[in-house]
Amino acid sequence: MTTVAVLHVIKPSRGKAVVTALFGEFRPEVWVSDMLGSQKGHGIEWQVCLAHLLRDAKYAIECGDTAFSAPFRRLLLRAIAIGQRRETLKDTTLRQYLYDLERRLDRIIKAVQIGEPGRKLRNRMLANRAHLFVFMTRRDVPFTNNASERNLRPSVIFRKVTNCFRCEWGPETYAAFRSVVSTAKANGASVYDAIRFVLSAKRPVEVTAGVYVASTGLLYVLLGNIDLFDVAGDGFTVTTANDRAGASYLFFGPVFDTPSKQAFGPSQGVQRLAEVCAAIRIPVIAIGGVNEENAAACIRAGASGIAAIRMFQKAQSAVALRESIAALRAPGS
Description:
The protein is an alpha/beta fold. It is built from 14 helices and 7 strands. Helix 11 links the parallel strand 5 and strand 6.
């Protein structure tokens, strides 16, 4: 999940292959997770969830390790308290706090742990201490993955109450439903309107060179949520029933060079985008390498909207993202 989009995937395994299959070659700037082995290596940087570490430290303390685990738990609580006040602290103050945390950690690690749980926890911290305080140098990074855990909770409860799914399409359908609901809530949008939009969309009807014709590309539907792109308004309605075999709109791209779209061929460019927009009657969504610097060019070329990944992941907040989108729609943009 990001600050503006939530994507649920339900699989029998929690292995690394699940994440790899979902993202392919794309790597987010920061990955926030617990220390499960399959969660490592997906992001350029990794922030370990401090809430999970608090739980591990508490267990080691209950097993008798007061030498290392007890002071380590107090250090985690101190780090979390600082993280909760980041918005009110200057960069220089945060750097001083980070130096202090590292200095305290140096002293704590020298302690001789008591018991196997304490030993394992200390060894994990020795190997992964560089991932403990990423949030101290990046204000946009949370110090826990509690938001993800909260979004997962309804799926866990559903699984326990229903005793799991009994068909292959069941988990796929439920994951899609939770993705729509969670993303709508993250953006303060109406869950009812979001579900109505997705249910009214048609299935993909055509794929040609440089053009994707679809209306249920779930990831793109979610990233272009209702409030952000007016997907429930006139910009995405069917203008001609028989246009492009009845498609509601189409994706065109890759407009610009981007690693995630290399399989679809070379970039098409803004000029080709403009030609396509002028040639058909249904809305065109520009996709592939679109960011805040070149999005306006896509809109000027005639695109009704844009689809992006990094542009949304780098957004500091949903409010800032809405302002950026609003600027694209402003006259003369």
